Each structure stands twice: as C-alpha cells, then as structure tokens.
Amino acid sequence: MRQPLNSVILAMALIAVPRAQSDAQVPATIEAYVAAHQREIVAELADLLAIPNVRSDGAGLRRNAEALRAMLVRRGLNAEVLETAGVPLVVGELRVPGATRTLLLYAHYDGQAVDPGGWKQATPFTPTMRTGRLEDGAAEITDFRTRATLEPDWRLYARSASDDKAPIVALCAALDALKAQGLAPTSNIRVLLDGEEESGSSSLGAALRQHRARFAADLMLFFDGPTHPSGRPTIVFGVRGNLGIGITVYGPKMELHSGHYGNWVSNPAMQLSQLLASMKDPDGRVLVKGFYDGIAPLSPAEETMLRDVPDDSAALMKLFGISRTERPGLSLQHALQLPTLNVRGLASADVGAGARTIIPDMAVASIDVRLVKETLAPAMAEKMRAHVRAQGYHVVDAEPDDATRARYPRIARVTGGGGTNGYRTDPSSAVSRAVTTAVTRAFGTPPVLIRTMGGTLPISQITDVMGFPAIVIPTVNFDNNQHSDNENIRLGHFFTSIRTIGALLRM
Amino acid sequence: MRQPLNSVILAMALIAVPRAQSDAQVPATIEAYVAAHQREIVAELADLLAIPNVRSDGAGLRRNAEALRAMLVRRGLNAEVLETAGVPLVVGELRVPGATRTLLLYAHYDGQAVDPGGWKQATPFTPTMRTGRLEDGAAEITDFRTRATLEPDWRLYARSASDDKAPIVALCAALDALKAQGLAPTSNIRVLLDGEEESGSSSLGAALRQHRARFAADLMLFFDGPTHPSGRPTIVFGVRGNLGIGITVYGPKMELHSGHYGNWVSNPAMQLSQLLASMKDPDGRVLVKGFYDGIAPLSPAEETMLRDVPDDSAALMKLFGISRTERPGLSLQHALQLPTLNVRGLASADVGAGARTIIPDMAVASIDVRLVKETLAPAMAEKMRAHVRAQGYHVVDAEPDDATRARYPRIARVTGGGGTNGYRTDPSSAVSRAVTTAVTRAFGTPPVLIRTMGGTLPISQITDVMGFPAIVIPTVNFDNNQHSDNENIRLGHFFTSIRTIGALLRM
After folding, report:
1. Whose C-alpha in A301, A357, A470, B95 is 20 to 30 A from the C-alpha of B41?
2. CB under 8 Å to B420, separation ≥6 — which residues?
C-alpha cells in the first residue's frame, strides 16, 4: 500500500532533525512491512533474476541496467544508466534535505558465467523456489508467486540470486518499508550498481574519475558476500586483496625419454617443487623476504574483536575432513589478517593412466597471493620475483629463446602483477561505530564484526580513487553456491537483510 | 639367388669345427649379399610392416604371428605359433650339428598404439619410403619396390619399422646371407618373438615356465632399441629397470575458496611440493634412504668403458636447450649407472587461464624410478613409501575415509610397486667377450660398449626365469621416432644390422 503524500512530507521533515526516539520502532515496523509484502518483494527479485546477466551477453546486461534504473526511479531516486568503456553502470541519487552525510551504496548486477547443464532447473535464469537446500532433496514450489506466506528456509535458485542481485532488491524494499512509515533515509543516498564486478570492474576506475563529483560520499556501504556462517548479521571492515602469480620452470626444449636421460637432464617438475617448497616453512609461514612487512601486531581491542567472532572451527574441520590447520595456534580469524601464498594449481606433463616415462619440458604453478591492507600488490609481485631469483633462477617474461637457454642453468617465467589491493577501515572510527550501532539497534544484539574477511572485493579500486572509507555489509546465506551451479538465496537471510539495510538508511 | 643344396650340406659340415679362417671373409660377403638383395629384403620388411600390430587388434597380431612363423620356416627353422594366456609367441629353432652353444634370439612383433592423424602417410601400416627424414622435408619414393638401388639415407616409415620388426627381418636376411655362402650359424638358434612387449610382456613369464626346456640357452641376444647416436654398432650389457610410483597428497575434502580459508586450511599442492623437494638435494642426489644401496664404485676397467663411449654431450645439451646437467661432474654414461627419481607428471586443480582461486583438494605426482641391477623394484618401492612416512605422512592405499582424515594430519596415497627390475651382465665374461669380438671382427673396429643403457627392456623377466645371461644388440637409428608418430627405420642402419647379426650367428 502506498503512503499518502503528507506522510512522505512528514518524513522529509523528520530527517532534518536528529533521529527521533520513534526510530527504536523502525526495525519492528520494517519487519512487519516485510511480512506483509513478502510475495511482492520476492516477485521483484524473481523478475530481476529472470534477466540473464553474464559477461558474454551484452544485451542481457543492458536489459538488467534498464530494469534497475526503473526500480530506482520507482523509489524516488534520480537514476540513470551511465555509459562506461564497458558494461554501463546504473547510478541513482536521493538527496535528503538536511542530511549531513552521504552514503554511496554499492552492489553489482552482473553474474558469474553459467554452465546450464549443472543446474537442476530449466535455466539459471528461470528462478526456481525450493523448500530448502537442493542438496538436501528440497521440493520445488512452482506456485510461490501466489502463495500467501513464504517460509524463511525456502530458497530461490537462480544465477545472482545471492551474488549480487538480492541486496539490490533488499535496498529497494527497505526504501519502500521506510516510505510506508513516512520515513526517508537519514543520509543522502547515492547508488552505484556495477555491471563488471565478476570480470574485474575494469571500466569502473575511469568512470569514477570521469564522474567524480557524482560519486562523492562520506562512506561507501558495499553490499556483497555472505554473512557469518552463524547466520548473524555481519559487518566487515576489511577485505583481502588478490594477486595472481604464474610460475613456469623450464626443462629441456622437448620432453625426453626418462630412461635415456634420467639423472643427466634436470627435471623441471622437481625444480618447481623445490622452488615452491622454498616459499613456506613446514608450519605454513611464508619465507618470501618481506612477505609480512608492515603488518603490526594486533592491539588488545583487535584481539578481542577476532576472538568474539563465533567461528565453529571444529565443525569446519569436520566438514572439510582435516585434522589440523595449516598454522597450529592461528585461529581462522587470525589467519585472515595475514597475506597468503596459495598454490591454486600445478601442472607438468601427465599423471595417472596417461603418465608417460618422460622428463617433462616444463612445470607450471599457479599461485594466488591474498593481500592485506599493508601488503600492496605491486610490491608483493616484486617480492615473489625476487624470491625466485634468489633461488638461482633467471626470471623471464616470455618463453626463453635458445640464447637464454644456453646462458642460464635455471630459467623461470613469472607472470602476474596486476592484482587487487586489500582494504581495511578502522572499526573504531566514528563512521564504523555508527554502522555497528545501527545494526545492533536493529536486532537488539551486536552483529558479528569482521576485521578482515578472507576473500577479495574490488573496494580499493573505488576507495583509492574516491578517498572515503568503505564498510562491507554482507547479507546472504554462506551456503549460497556463489559462483557455482545452483546459486541460491535463503529467504530468511533475504528478509533479514531488508531490516539491516533499513537500519543503515536510518543510521 | 638360391644356393644349390650341396653348398648347404657343406655349410652344415663346417659348423661342426671351430670357426674357419674363411670367416674373416664373412662380413664382406654378407655385405655383398645385402647389396645384391636390397630390394627383396626391404620388400619383406615392408610386407611385414603392412600387417597391423597394435594391442587392441588381436586378429592383426595373429596375422603377424602366422607371417613370422612362415618367415622362419622359409629359413629352415622349426617354427610355430605358441599360445599363451595372451598374445601368442612365435618360436623357432635351428639345431646345428656339433654346435656347443645355444643362442636365444629375442625380438618383439607388437607395436605401440597409433594415432593415425599424426602420421604423414595413408596409415601407419602403409609403409612409406622417403629420401631422408620427414622433419627435413624428405620426398616420398613411391616406386621403391622396383628400384634397383636403395640409398642408405632413405627411411621406411611405418609403425614398428624400428621397434621392433626390422631386427626380425634382419635376422632372416642374415640367415639367408649365410646360407648363400654355404654357411650355417655356429650356435644352435632359438628364436622367441614376443607379441606383448609394448604392453609389459605379461604372459611371457608363465609361458617360459611352462615351456622352459624349449627356451633353454647359453645366452640371450635381445634385439631391440637404437644404436649409439654416433651410428656405430653397439653392444649393451645392461638396462635400467622401471618402477612407477604415484603419490597423492590429500587436502580438504572439497576445493575451498582460497580467500575464505587461505592460511587456515593446508594446501596439498604446497605439501606435495615439499614432499618431492625432500627427495632430492639441489645437486640432484636422491635423499631417499638407501636409494643407492648396493651400488659399488666402478672399477678402472668400467671407468674406461664408460669414458670410451663417444657421447657428444655438448651437442645433446644444445639440442635439448640446457646449459647445465642435473649433477655437474656426472657424465651421461655415469648418470645411467645409477637409479633415477624422475617426476614425470604433476597435477593439482588448474593452471593458466583455467586457474581458480581455490585451495585444491588434492595434488598428484607421478614418479618413475629407473632401477639398476643392484636396486630391486620391490625394495625400492618400500624405500619410497618409507620416505613418505618419514616426512610425517600417513600412507594409504585408497582414498582416505572420514575416520582416517580425522586421525591423521598428513595423508598421502602411494601407488605402484610392480615394476621391472634392471639387468646387467658382466662385460668381461667369456660370452660377453665373444659377442664383442664377433662384432669387432665384422666391422674391423670396436663397437660402442654400453655398460648400462638408460632405458628399460623386459630382460630380467626372462633371465630371472631362465638363468642365462643376456646381451642387447640394438640396431636401429636413434632418431627413429620410436613410440611416436612417423616411426621409421634408416636403411643404412637396417643393412648394417644384417652384418652385425650375421657376425653374431657365426661367433
């Protein structure tokens, strides 16, 4: 039901003054609004999910952009599709008279590529409601659009259900819920919907520079990612960056008979193994010189923050089938405060039934280094190269030619170096405390506070240009099959996120 | 031209006495015979090569066996197709009155699998003559069967041209050449043609045991493999064995997000790298306990023998594009006297464009250990397992179950252990010296003497059962593309091998 105009005017007046006592009631009224409008909120999400949004489908992405612009306009935002060098951005603005703070709300509307064969439904863009987890044999609910009540354990399956269309629809529903109470946000709102997040947000930096004034804000709220597995509302103050490094160690120019030349021609798979082994001690500490440079010991307050995260390590270890973690004594949250050196892939000739008795001609490792705020990508890439050199390798950027082969006994090609920097804002800053307070008030209990989450989000690409801080508000279920087949959003998480976002709009 | 019967009778008489002075002329007369009969000798080889001989073609293998039996019968051998549990053997016998020595002549008639698409001719079983190396752009000679003269640099392309049908046809031609001079072999001859060499000669041991008396001999001459790259006639007194070992290091039960869990869940690709690195020092010496046990220092005579092999290390290094060998100071021949630990393949998740930001669930290495006479396969397999255990791994034979995962922090599956033992006979024994003398006499210059060749031949499978020594007589060009597309035999090597085999039949 639409609010009469005078309610809106009343709300617009309210925001010019400090938050009224009545705001204590806002969470409950949002919850009531959501309960009363479940069907139409979920229908709006399902309609959005039905528009294909993969990288290769430019027309589909543009249809998404147009639909999103219309959704923002319906909430009273001044919105447009903003062209970039690549996929367009969708931007929106809601100026609130008297507001002294401007929030930039970020989400993305593009999705990971799909392999339709792996999806247990007509297509990844045919939103499909189930009574629970597909893996648990949940039944499909074909008439969900006409059901009176939708259960919190139900899940809507479609590409981008969780990553990252649900937060956009939740934002729209939160604006509707406030409006229904005659409330406006307490901050000016700028919305930035990225269409290239899954492919690296490569056009975003230039667009931000070109339209800098339109994106100016005091704080960015970055809506992406899952809440803590405990299901509790979660606030994330930092993310790790990522740096992909490829290492190829070269052996003989061609594969050689392992009998005829074994012991005489060096084996690049063994050399690569020795090179990788030189990078970590047996307890998982990285030995690359300077790898941990600049990372200060944690303060008592930070230690407390990490300890308060309700991780269930034993349950995770059981789920993963491991009986020891990499660095005994380092909790999961502590582990996430440090950069990683992860061998994500190895390849050399063949194994198993296809193995042949040869000395391989090369061996390849793919490494991803997760970065923290203190360890910048370019410097880390150079440290990795320096380490390879220190092991006696001549480092090349391309296949070695004959002259290079004749000159250097050990040759490695090291690729990579772009990468995404990590990011972290101070959890004790005024704006961080305001966000924490707003979410605490919305639920009557403190959210899970994450100093640094393990994964990577393109936050530094924005904050490096714009200069204001960012806080991540993850909202979806952690078991959403993000980036995989059968991605889904649990309705309970989706409905809760409307409350969370509503609280932030009123903080 | 066939010899009149009385010449044959004369020859049969001759062999009862010590080798006559006239034997000094034998090499020259064999050479003359070959020169005069090039066309028919090559035609017989081409006809044999036209019969498909891959593992999967049982009917083709049997056609080969029948053709070979007929070829031996035409040379006066008592020959038959001998059934085994698998592909039949072809066996033949020529008893020579008065001979005090029996030679078992081994070759194999099966070939490696073929990928017809890689062959630059109608089929791998359409023998195709070229003026030289295909790789050098040699022209095809379609009318080679009617040419008066065949040039030594010409090559006949077909599967098994070198490996291993050429030696069989050369043996037949050598018998013909002797017969043309009224000569018989100076030893009793037993022929053993294996139809399963390329697939491991798995039926051979049982057949030998079942028909032990039929294969009894004083010496086995094993016709397989290439001569020294110098092209000089070559005698090989030992071969390395081979033991395939697979190692799988287990990580989490499923691939995990490298951001969410990096630094907390151990990485099996890194652990495998550390495990492999623990097996060799930087100078290529294997660190597995007991790896070199039982290998005595070389005697001065053995050192001389190795030094006399005319290896062109610089040319090989240039060809392979390497500027240093694995163990500086160890010559190629010295390297071949020791067992190897060769990583023939590595695999874990993906590299390159397909690399994903995950902690892999497992990492696999395929290793082949080339064995020498002193290092037996079963003991070496156990030493490898013991080494893995000594690095802190619980070694399993199958995928670890949840209970195993919960109990052991490091788990590795180690497979393999059958393997083929190495073999070596004493180059200074009477029979070894007789072989060396015969080949030296045939060419007027000493052959290349190889104490241990690097590759593996199934010699120990025969000598372990039969008890007599074996010597390998390789005859084909080293650049024959053995086991690959476009296998070929250089006619010069083929014709020379008839002289070599003739000399051995008269030794």
Report:
1. B95
2. B241, B242, B243, B371, B377, B456, B458, B460, B461
Tokens standing for A4?
């009469």
* Number of residues that this document lists for chain A: 507
Instruction: Say if residues B14 and B183 touch (Cβ distance below 8 Å).
Output: yes
The pTM for the full model equals: 0.89
The boundaries of every CATH 3.30.70.360 domain in chain B are 241-295+338-415
Residues with Cβ within 8 Å of A372's Cβ and at least 6 positions away in sequence, in order, are: A238, A240, A241, A295, A337, A338, A339, A422, A424, A452
Tell me B197's DSSP state. G
Q: Give this complex's ipTM.
A: 0.89
The residue whose two tokens read 């396969």 is B377
Range list for CATH 3.40.630.10 in chain A: 5-239+422-505
Identify any residues that bridge with B70 across adjacent strands, giving them in sequence order.
Answer: none
Q: By the 8 A CB rule, do B125 and B159 touch?
A: yes
Judge whether B325 is closer than 8 Å to chain A, CB to CB: yes
Q: Do A406 and B260 touch (CB under 8 A)?
A: no
- The residues in A 397-436 lying below 8 A from B, measured between CB atoms, are 400, 402, 405-409
Q: Does B328 touch chain A (CB under 8 A)?
A: no
- Residues 175-204 of chain A with CB under 8 A from chain B are none
Confidence label for B15 from pLDDT (cuts 50, 70 and 90)? very low
Q: Which residues of chain A neighbour B278 with C-beta distances below 8 Å? A: 277
Whether the pLDDT of residue A19 is over 80: the answer is no
Give the mutation candidate from A330, A342, A391, A407 for the B interface (greatest B CB count, under 10 A): A342
Question: What is the tens place of the pLDDT at every residue in B105-159?
Answer: 999 999 999 989 999 999 999 999 999 999 999 999 999 999 989 999 999 999 9
Residue count of chain B: 507
Contact A276 B270 (CB under 8 A): yes
Find chain B residues with C-beta within 8 A of A321's C-beta: 252-253, 400, 402, 405-406
Average pLDDT over residues A442-459: 95
Question: CATH assignment of B5-239+422-505, given 3.40.630.10, 3.30.70.3280, 3.50.50.60, 3.40.190.10?
Answer: 3.40.630.10
Q: Please tell me the distance from the alpha carbon of residue A244 to that of residue A368, in angstroms, as a whole number.
A: 5
Chain A interface includes B332 (CB < 8 A): yes
Which DSSP helix (H) or strand (E) runs through A63? helix A58-74
Contact across the interface for A346 and B344, Cβ inside 8 Å: no
Chain B residues within an 8 Å CB radius of A320: 252-254, 256, 261, 265
Q: Which of B240, B249, B260, B421 to mutate to test the interface with A (most CBs of A within 10 A)?
A: B260
How many angstroms separate the Cα of B77 from the Cα of each of A325, B61, B71, B92? 70, 21, 9, 6
CATH topology of domain B241-295+338-415: Alpha-Beta Plaits (3.30.70)
**Looking at beta carbons, which residues of chain B come within 8 Å of A338?**
263
